[in-house]
Design brief:
Shape: globular
Helix content: 25-40%
CATH topology: Oxidized Rhodanese, domain 1
CATH superfamily: Rhodanese-like domain
Largest sheet: 6 strands, mixed
CATH class: Alpha Beta
Organism: Chrysophaeum taylorii
Strand order of the largest sheet: 1-2-7-6-3-5
Protein name: Rhodanese domain-containing protein
Domain Rhodanese: 32-117
InterPro entries: Rhodanese-like_dom, Rhodanese-like_dom_sf, Thiosulfate_ST/Rhodanese-like
Region (Disordered): 118-137
Radius of gyration: 15 Å
């Protein structure tokens, strides 16, 4: 694990995707860690780490307002996306423990780790469901 220097007094922990996977999925699909994907809703719909929630980061203030609605249980969050470090700083300021995943979703997918897709139900015989026109995703 490496540390990312930020403007806060505490350095952020940065972990590779393999470790992020272990943190989020340490007890079946339930864990003391929640995966927060800070990419846009469009990118999130096209694919995300299994069981991730989406809290898009566009500005620090808007993200802080949205992040305040996150449940405090689990208090530990794994954050990924292009603005993951900025989002993690905001989450730490709100009292969460945040870990940044290095490599983002591309690295997660390249490792073959489990993903969710809109319009795809992993538990339903691997059949695609009609979720609208993919051109509009």
């Amino acid at each position: 694990m490496r540390r990312l220097n930020t403007t806060t007094t505490k350095a952020l922990a940065v972990v590779p995707a393999e470790i992020a996977y272990e943190l989020v999925h340490e007890v079946g699909w339930e864990s003391r860690h929640q995966f927060v994907d800070v990419r846009s809703a469009t990118a999130f719909a096209r694919g995300r780490p299994k069981a991730a929630i989406n809290v898009p980061f566009s500005t620090s203030d808007l993200f802080e307002d949205a992040a305040k609605a996150l449940e405090r249980d689990p208090p530990r969050l794994v954050v990924a996306g292009t603005a993951a470090s900025q989002a993690a700083v905001v989450l730490e300021r709100l009292g969460f423990e945040a870990v940044v995943m290095d490599g983002g979703f591309d690295r997660w997918r390249d490792l073959g780790l489990p993903i969710d897709l809109d319009g795809y139900d992993d538990d339903d015989d691997d059949e695609l469901q009609d979720d609208g026109d993919p051109a509009k995703w």
